[in-house]
Design brief:
It holds the Pfam family Helicase_C_2. This protein is mostly helical. The protein has helices at 19-24, 39-50, 67-70, 95-112, 124-133, 137-153, 176-180, 196-212, 214-217, 224-254, 258-265, and strands at residues 4-5, 28-31, 58-61, 81-85, 165-169.
C-alpha cells in the first residue's frame, strides 16, 4: 500500500545514501494516510511491525494536529519515543490566521484604551484586569504551535508505569519563550543539546534503566485486540469532535455574537482554527 514500508536491511549501502533508505535499513516505516478511511489499516500495519517478535520496531510518521498526534492512544511498547521536527506554527499568511490575530490585537487594544470614567464610577481597574486576561494575536499564534507540540509529546506517556523519550529537533526550543510553552510535566526533564554522541549515549542509558525498573518492566504491552478496540473507540470520538469544531468555526465566521467573543476570550475556540 501507499503508507507502509517494510524493514529492508540491505536497502542502504555506501553508494546510495538516501536518508529514506537509511531509515528503512533499520526499521519499518508507516506514514499517516491522508484518508480517514485508511487510518485503521495503517495502525494495523504499525501493530504488525511492532508485534512481529523480532524487536526491530517501527517508525510511525504523522503530522501535528493530525489523528496520530492527537487522537490515538499509543501506550507502552507502541510509543517509546516521540520525535518532534520543527515547531508547527500555523501558516502566517493564511487569511483566517491573519484575521484572528488582528481581531485579538484589536480586542486587547480596546481594553488598553478604555476611558477611566467620571461621575463616581472608575473603569480603569476593570479595564486593566481585562487587558491582562486577554491575549494578543502574537500570543495566540504561539499558543497554537505549543498546543500541537504538547498534544504530540503526550502520546509517549499514557499511564503511571509508562515511559519513553521526547526528542525536540529544533534549535528554537532552546529559546525561553518556546520552552515555556511546553507542558509543565516535560519542562524539568528538558536537556540542552550537547552533541549527537551524548544524545545517543544518554538515550541508551535511559532505556537500560527503564527496562531494569521492576515496576516499569512488569507492564506488558497491550494485546492487539485491546489496542484495536481502543483505536476504534478513539476514531469515533475524534470524528465527533472534528464535526463539532467545524460547526463552531462556521458559526464564528457567519456571526461573531457576544457568546462567540466570550469563547474566544476564554481561549476555548483556539483549537478549531488549527
Amino acid at each position: 500500500n501507499r503508507y507502509s514500508f517494510p524493514y529492508a536491511p540491505n536497502y542502504y549501502n555506501e553508494s546510495n545514501q538516501s536518508p529514506w533508505k537509511r531509515l528503512l535499513s533499520h526499521k519499518a516505516i508507516v506514514l499517516e494516510p491522508k484518508s480517514t478511511a485508511e487510518m485503521k489499516s495503517a495502525i494495523e500495519e504499525f501493530d504488525k511491525y511492532i508485534d512481529d517478535g523480532k524487536g526491530r520496531g517501527c517508525v510511525l510518521m504523522g503530522v501535528t494536529r493530525g489523528k496520530i498526534s492527537e487522537g490515538i492512544d499509543f501506550a507502552d511498547g507502541r510509543a517509546r519515543a516521540v520525535i518532534i521536527t520543527g515547531i508547527p506554527f500555523p501558516p502566517l499568511q493564511d487569511q483566517k490566521i491573519k484575521l484572528k490575530r488582528e481581531y485579538l490585537d484589536g480586542v486587547k487594544a480596546s481594553y488598553t484604551m478604555r476611558p477611566t470614567g467620571e461621575g463616581g464610577f472608575d473603569e480603569s481597574s476593570l479595564a486593566s484586569q481585562r487587558n491582562s486576561e486577554t491575549i494578543s494575536g502574537t500570543e495566540w499564534y504561539s499558543q497554537q504551535a505549543h498546543r500541537a507540540v504538547n498534544q504530540a509529546v503526550g502520546r509517549v506517556i499514557r499511564h503511571r508505569f509508562d515511559y519513553g523519550a521526547i526528542i525536540l529537533m529544533d534549535s528554537r526550543f532552546g529559546d525561553a519563550r518556546n520552552r515555556e510553552g511546553i507542558s509543565k510535566w516535560v519542562r524539568p526533564a528538558i536537556q540542552a543539546d550537547e552533541g549527537m554522541g551524548r544524545a545517543i549515549s544518554g538515550l541508551a542509558r535511559f532505556y537500560r534503566e527503564a527496562k531494569s525498573d521492576p515496576e516499569l518492566s512488569a507492564r506488558a504491552p497491550l494485546s492487539k485486540d485491546t489496542a484495536r478496540r481502543r483505536i476504534d473507540a478513539v476514531n469515533l470520538e475524534y470524528e465527533k469532535d472534528q464535526k463539532a469544531k467545524e460547526k463552531t468555526v462556521r458559526a464564528m465566521e457567519e456571526d461573531a455574537t457576544p457568546t462567540t467573543i466570550a469563547v474566544i476570550k476564554n481561549n476555548e475556540l483556539l483549537s478549531s482554527s488549527s
